[in-house]
Amino acid sequence: MAKSIVIKNGRLIEPSLGLSEQLDVLVEGTSVAGIGRDLTGDTEIDASGCVVCPGLVDIHVHFREPGFESKETIATGSRAAARGGFTSVVTMPNTAPPIDNGGMVEQHNRSAREAACIKVWPAAAATKGRAGAEMTEMADLKAAGAAAVTDDGNDIESSWVLRRVLEYANMVGLTYLTHAEDHSLMEGGAMNEGYNATRLGLPGLPKAMEEIAIDRAIRLAELAGARIHICHVSTAGGVDIVRRAKERGLPVTCETAPHYWTLTDDAVERFGTNAKMNPPLRGPEDVAAIRQGLADGAIDCIATDHAPHTLTEKDVEFQSAPFGIIGLETSLALGVTGLVRDGVISMERLVELMTAAPAGGLGLAAGRLEEGGPADITVFDPEAEWTVDPNQFASKARNCPFAGMRLHGVVKATLCDGRVVHRAAEG
Amino acid sequence: MTEAEPGSRVWTRKDLVGIEDLSRSEVEMILDTAPQFLAVSHRESGIKKVPVLQGRLVVNWFYEPSTRTRTSFELAAKRLSADTLSISASTSSTQKGETLHDTLYNIEAMRSDIVVIRHGLAGAARLLAERHPSSIINAGDGYHEHPTQALLDAFTMREHVRRMREDPEATLDGIRVALVGDIAHSRVARSNVWCLTKLGAQVTVCGPSTLLPQGMDRMGCAVTTSLREAIADADVVYALRMQLERQGRCLFPSIREYVRLFRIDNETLAGAPAHAIVMHPGPINRNVELSSEVADGPRNVILEQVTNGVAVRMAVMHLLVNRPAVGVA
């Protein structure tokens, strides 16, 4: 029989149980065997000064398999996730070919079982080939184990198609994840429209691109009587539209990403293509609204939109570079540093935003730490400081605009199904 | 100026990427260096050459078609006695998938001293300047900057003001400049706004509302859609080239209507002060942004801009290459 592990002297934060106190956690096999005081086990993880919480959940990552394995793989992406404290992630289907049928979902799950050190749940495409015209066989996708449906990277341009996708996805019990973008406003845009884009001579991406699309998606979801989730909200207007929809009682959830509360479009000049993503970094008023939304619940959860690209792909003229930055290995520390230490939210709220909230939104069996449940556990020291060095990342990619930042919050250990999948070097 | 006497100023930059980066004194250093090179072009002996860059290699690397700017840079290099090499988009290996960096590594393997680059995408010059040892001169990058154009424009304006006021020390402080046309897609407009405002001029940009980019006012200029208002008290009326290929993208209804609202002709120019001069970066679309009578009229200094362009580019090349060695200054 496997040896038991006891995680001792940490502060257990379990949002679903409303716990935030010093408690030990005993792990036996793949499960949590006990939560209490003065527990003992065969081996011990000393969590003094640390937060112990459910394994973190990120419902928006790109692991690029199949098709773009030079950017990232399920193996390297999952190691990056474990290093960042994540035990469950949802991968986006904008692969080549796109994951748009049951067989590909099964194949993805098989690859994940073989290669991933954490739980990797695939989201499948909402339309065939992600082309926005014909809906996928969603009952099949669901049966094969898809966690959600999305054409992420694209919005569904036709409101007719989007309406039917929402109705059908709701029937089979899958949530549609909305990449909200009025593409007709894009016109070669490369960064947030405004002073910085004008100054740098770069075509702009107006905030209205996102706001119009969020508004449209929510109205169609209302028409369809469907639940809907909005991905990577970046604008004050977007937060406001979601907040109002919630006030009207609609089943709408949304996520934001760490870069949207950390950086403004001022960063583009300093970090070049590593500060290029879609939606783009916005202005200070948007950063303030994102923070407010995380605090007051207008924003439900944090997702990284971890979007790896090779050095070569990013080492080009700004307009030629692909959109996207990586985020799994900095997300928690950016939350601890930029949200908790800045007094925007409590540590309990941060943990909720990164565990129970994202998992609950998609109905994933994740984001909880309870007796008898899977031993998916993250231990992090919220006081410990480190300097972001992308060369140390487990991800294949280095496209990170946070290089050189001093951050608080170091993941000491990540356990997935009772197995230690990451352990920080001591010292 | 508070810092230093003109004679004691020292140029330290390796590259000229944009005017935004420069201080007023750096801009003035270039403008003050140009006259000696202008004199070279006007030598009575007819020998228009100095050995300032003898044995140096200047590479003109143009991704976009250009006659004026390219010729001007080439001539500037030749009058400084440099060897010159031209690479154009049609003969480059970009189409074969080579990256910008890789192409420059290859150029530098032939020991280039100055690389003049024109590129269709913003930021290309900076990208290269930050990594490569050659001095990079931005000859236009997308809609971003065209610094030597702004410098030659400022030089031309200053010469004009000095002649008009019969004051060889006159500056552009308080001079009013109206830039008219497609501001959104103009690197000339951006570089001119930075350059002229640094030199103390008051700049107004004017064009159709669809071609005035957001946040332009934060660059330190006034913004208007009224041509009449823009030129009412202008000392300089600067018409930008209207890119005819912008038609059909729903940015303005027709050239005909553009002409109606924004063309500089004798009629509209009657609303400007009598002493106002007319400038244009070339090439002109006759009877689009400028009427022929104005383009050929007594108030234009367009060919003077071209002449000055060679001298200003000679000054820039000289300053970049002959800057004090790193650590010595």
Keywords:
heterodimer, A: alpha/beta, Urease, subunit C, domain 1, TIM Barrel, six-stranded mixed sheet, five-stranded parallel sheet, 14 helices, 22% strand, B: 329 residues, alpha/beta, Rossmann fold, 2 domains, four-stranded parallel sheet, 11 helices, 36% helix
Structure in a nutshell:
Chain A is an alpha/beta fold and 427 residues long.
Task: Explain what the structure shows.
The complex is a heterodimer of chains A (427) and B (329). Chain A has 427 residues and is an alpha/beta fold. Chain A has helices at 74-83, 102-115, 138-144, 159-172, 195-200, 207-224, 236-247, 258-262, 267-271, 284-296, 311-314, 331-340, 347-354, 356-362, and strands spanning 5-8, 11-14, 19-22, 24-28, 31-36, 43-46, 51-54, 56-61, 86-91, 119-122, 149-150, 176-178, 191-192, 204-205, 228-230, 252-256, 301-302, 377-387, 406-416, 419-423. Chain A folds into 2 domains: 5-51 and 375-423, Roll (Urease, subunit C, domain 1), CATH 2.30.40; 55-362, Metal-dependent hydrolases (TIM Barrel, Alpha-Beta Barrel). Chain A has a 6-stranded mixed β-sheet, covered by helices on one side. A 5-stranded parallel β-sheet of chain A has the order 11-12-15-16-17. In chain A, helix 2 (102-115) packs parallel to helix 3 and helix 7 runs parallel beside helix 10. The longest helix of chain A is centred in the middle third of the chain and has 18 residues, at 207-224. By secondary structure, chain B is an alpha/beta fold. In chain B, 36% of the residues lie in helices and 14% in strands. Chain B contains 11 helices and 9 strands. Chain B has helices at residues 24-41, 68-79, 100-108, 124-129, 147-165, 187-198, 227-231, 255-262, 266-269, 292-295, 302-321, and strands spanning 57-62, 83-88, 114-119, 135-141, 176-180, 202-206, 222-224, 236-239, 277-279. The longest helix of chain B has 20 residues, at 302-321. Chain B starts with 23 loop residues before the first helix and ends in an 8-residue tail after the last helix. At the A-B interface, helix 5 of A face loops of B.
